[in-house]
Design a protein that fits this description.
Largest sheet: 7 strands, mixed
Shape: elongated
Number of strands: 18
Number of helices: 15
Oligomer: single chain
Helix content: 25-40%
Distance between the termini: 18 Å
CATH class of the largest domain: Alpha Beta
């Protein structure tokens, strides 16, 4: 193994790109797999959990890692595309070791130093195996806003890493998930053991949990929501986009669904109920009821200010809709839509109404999924308005809404066919 530091802290590996010998990125690091034997013998590092295309997680043995340098990991290019499945003798560093309560044995202090694991370090032993050699620990905070002292100890000097810990917290795992995209964080949460997932969900704030829920498979969404108390579940649903919340509530039993809708803010609940009133896989059921809506006297500067909202998806920010009052769906009559590209070419003081695309036909809420797909494809659109019989804007269907409904159930877990990566045969799992 060349160009590799003698000691690597695992939390810094998560999210790093993995490259093949040709310099092409083939995956990202998501976790580290180790085999723990005893508290005194250093655990052997078996390999990395890597995420490849399609958010699929595979196992990359350490024997396939050729280098770990600044900001990237290099492999031989031989990857087994079989989905990673954790064995009973294996431990995930990020998923299971972080936030464990441990004690550093210290003869100078009665009982030693107790704290939470926030990182571990691995090193290469003389036999070329990688082992976990150090444990980074943070003591509990002392006083108002004062962080607890941190320590880095030898593995053999730490106790508590091999014992089961039902009440394991999630502080440092949450910190590791914080910088991930919601889809990546959802994939990691999906792979956690049930008790660990429960702790992580409990520690997440409502907005972040809502973002992650939108990216999880339906069965995970339902399981997580049913384990929350009703008040918090309603708060999380309010933070979700209305179309995703409607899909999730539709998967709950009717009694739970009615309870949660009753606890939500009336305006939020009304949007969800309206979406649930449409037949499945129609434009009405797929649409987002909160696109960018402006009045006829709005300027292009106003429109550009609205589409800069970082909470908008790229497809929602691609079009603005000009309507008569009221400007909340269902609006007054839809006058037309303007493309962001057109707006960027016009003077900021110009009225948006002067830049409308008059050729764009709206969709009806009963349009089928195939009709929506054909409409977006025919006119090269990433979004389209949905109107009722009176021409009032009900919402907008975006290409990502369409894909969510067109892809087969469980598409996140579907396996790409095993094959060759950059011309090399697949490699069997080692360790």
């Amino acid at each position: 193994m060349s160009a590799t530091p003698t000691r690597v802290f695992v939390a810094r590996l998560v999210g790093l790109p993995i490259f093949d010998p040709q310099g092409d990125q083939v995956a990202k690091v998501r976790d580290l797999v180790v085999a723990i034997r005893t508290e005194t013998s250093q655990p052997r590092v078996l390999g990395l959990v890597a995420e490849v295309f399609g958010r699929r997680r595979i196992f990359v043995p350490m024997t396939r890692i050729t280098a770990i340098d600044s900001g990237q990991v290099h492999t031989t290019g031989l990857l087994n595309m079989r989905r990673f499945q954790q064995r009973g003798t294996e431990t995930l560093v990020m998923g299971q070791m972080l936030d464990r309560t441990v004690t550093i044995k210290d003869s100078a202090k009665d009982g030693g130093v107790t704290g939470l694991v926030f990182d571990v370090a691995m090193e290469q032993a003389r036999n070329r195996d990688w082992v976990i050699s150090r444990v980074a620990i943070q003591e509990p905070s002392k006083g108002f806003r004062r962080r607890g002292q941190t320590h880095v100890a030898e593995w053999r000097d730490v106790t508590g890493l091999t014992a089961a810990e039902p009440a394991q917290g999630a502080t440092h795992l949450i910190a590791a998930l914080h910088d991930m995209r919601p889809a990546d964080a959802a994939n990691m949460i999906h792979e956690l053991p049930p008790e660990r997932r429960t702790a992580v969900v409990a520690a997440m704030d409502d907005e972040r949990l809502a973002d992650v829920l939108e990216e999880l498979p339906e069965e995970d969404q339902v399981e997580i929501l049913e384990h929350l108390d009703s008040e918090r579940a309603a708060d999380v649903l309010e933070e979700m986009s209305a179309d995703d919340a409607a899909d999730l509530i539709a998967d709950l039993n009717p009694e739970t669904a009615a309870t949660l809708l009753g606890l939500m803010e009336p305006d939020e609940a009304e949007d969800v109920r309206r979406l649930m009133s449409y037949d499945d896989n129609t434009a009405g059921a797929m649409m987002t009821p909160e696109p960018v809506i402006l009045s006829p006297d709005a300027t292009i500067a106003d429109a550009l200010a609205h589409v800069r909202n970082p909470e908008l998806t790229p497809s929602l920010a691609a079009l603005v809709y000009v309507c008569r009052q009221p400007l909340e769906t269902p609006t007054g009559r839809l006058l037309g839509a303007a493309h962001i590209q057109r707006l960027l070419r016009e003077p900021p003081s110009t009225l948006v109404a002067a830049a409308l695309d008059d050729s764009m036909d709206p969709l009806r809420p009963d349009a089928t999924m195939d009709e929506v797909a054909a409409h977006l494809a025919t006119y090269n659109l990433v979004a389209a308005p949905v109107v009722d019989d009176e021409g009032r804007l009900l919402g907008a269907v975006t290409v990502d809404d369409l894909l969510d409904h067109m892809l087969p159930e469980g598409w996140r877990d579907r396996a790409p066919r095993p094959g060759r990566i950059n011309g090399g045969p697949t490699a069997g799992r080692a360790g």
